[in-house]
Design goal:
36% of the residues lie in helices and 12% in strands. It is α/β, with parallel strands linked by helices. The structure holds pyridoxal-5'-phosphate. Pyridoxal-5'-phosphate (PLP) is lined by residues 77-79, 105, 107, 152, 156, 181, 183-184, 204, 215.
């Protein structure tokens, strides 16, 4: 079969859902598939070669994340890593209270549902209109029976970056382990897990140009974990033949993403692409920003735009319908209205639990639209986006009730 022509990615604006594999990642993985495909646990030369690649990849990832390679556990993605972190630690200590935010990813809320069935309590730290947690409320919750805190670092739907340094300090002072869902941050910000002082950190390869199907849990030594999948691999903490080829792709993806950040003084250059686009979008009638302002460099994911869209008359428009209409114009975005798996305070089902947690009225909670950028894009690719949104909005406006 002839090699496939490279795909046109100029309309792919959904990096926060997943990102296309980088060329360098594809190359590394193709080579690894040919030479290091064997079972890393096998004692023969084929296995040793696979094992060497796996451990080299683990070492590179650990170095790039500011961690020890002994602390990295490979698994199938962040959903599994989050489950291993929360259920694994909870399995080794008596039930108590888990503190989360109301803007967690469904992977976390699903694990929390299991913990509730195991006798745990859950408490939500409130967030403000930008999605930022209330540090005073958090500190008040860091007393018995709280035994674990889990927070999403970079919120996928509204782009909020939580102030992790003070959160980590508060948890450490209270002697309570902290798990961080770093899925949307890794690759867009240099991460030094040791300096941050987090105990558990989950991330995944596919959001940063790596392969789908591999993620990792960083678990600081001394934090006990009950394996959720039995077996001898990964130090007995996660059974199943290790995916050495995927690990090599993951390491390559993070290396390329980190080099890109370093070339730009540690900042993601995607913010420079995002800001002019956002400024143009916000000039459109009926379009407003949700989540933190882009000027808040520390507070908002650099590649992330989240909007709430209404008709000119102020009638909220359905985000999912906008997504479909934008795709008819060749633009891939998302509505960001995935429902949370468990009910947080004030949730009533339908629409986005995240927008609801930020204080949006029920009528606007299904009107979110997310545009997320990646390094495959250039400013010329984004030229047509405001016009396309305006067209999609007008089409819907004329069919919306109340028009
Ligand atoms: C913030 C966040 N956490 C967790 C996940 C789950 O990651 P994975 O797809 O690797 O299971 C995602 C993916 O959508 C995410 O955006």
């Amino acid at each position: 079969m002839p090699p496939e022509a490279p795909q046109d990615l100029s309309g792919y604006l959904d990096a926060c859902a997943t990102s296309p594999p980088r060329e360098g990642v594809l190359k590394v993985m193709a080579a690894a598939h040919r030479s290091a495909w064997a079972n890393p646990s096998s004692l023969h030369g084929f296995g040793l070669r696979a094992s060497e690649l796996l451990e080299r990849s683990r070492g590179r990832l650990a170095e790039l994340l500011g961690a020890s390679q002994h602390d990295l556990i490979f698994c199938s993605g962040a959903s599994e890593a989050i489950h291993l972190a929360l259920l694994g630690l909870a399995g080794m200590i008596p039930p108590g209270r888990l503190v989360i935010s109301p803007v967690e990813h469904p992977a976390t809320t699903a694990a929390v549902e299991t913990l509730l069935r195991q006798g745990w309590e859950v408490a939500w730290v409130p967030v403000d209109r930008r999605g930022v947690i209330d540090l005073i409320a958090l500190s008040e919750l860091l007393v018995p029976p709280t035994r674990l805190v889990s927070l999403i670092w970079g919120q996928s739907e509204v782009g909020t970056i939580q102030p992790l340094e003070p959160v980590s300090r508060l948890c450490r002072n209270a002697g309570i382990p902290l798990h961080v869902d770093a899925v949307q941050v890794v690759g867009h910000r240099l991460v030094d897990a040791d300096a941050l002082g987090v105990d558990l950190l989950s991330c995944t390869a596919h959001k940063l140009g790596g392969p789908r199907g591999i993620g990792l849990l960083l678990c600081r030594r001394g934090i006990p974990l009950l394996p959720q999948i039995g077996g001898v691999q990964e130090g007995g903490l996660r059974g199943g033949t290790e995916a050495g080829v995927l690990a090599a792709g993951f390491a390559q993806a993070l290396e390329e993403a980190s080099e890109r950040l370093l070339r730009h003084g540690g900042q993601d250059p995607l913010a420079g692409l995002r800001d002019p686009l956002l400024a143009r979008l916000l000039k459109l009638p009926g379009v407003s920003l949700s989540g933190p302002a882009p000027e808040d460099r520390e507070g908002r994911l650099p590649h992330h735009i989240s909007l709430v869209v209404s008709s000119e008359a102020g009638v909220p428009l359905p985000g999912r319908e906008l997504v479909r209409r934008l795709w008819r114009q060749g633009l891939a975005v998302s509505s960001g209205s995935a429902c949370s798996a468990i009910a947080s305070p004030g949730s009533r089902g339908g629409g986005s639990a995240v927008l609801r947690a930020l204080g949006y009225p029920e009528s606007q909670c299904a009107s979110g639209l997310r545009i997320s950028l990646g390094p495959w894009l250039c400013s010329a690719d984004l030229e047509r986006v405001p016009g396309a949104l305006e067209q999609a909005r007008r089409e819907l406006e004329t069919s919306a009730p109340g028009h």
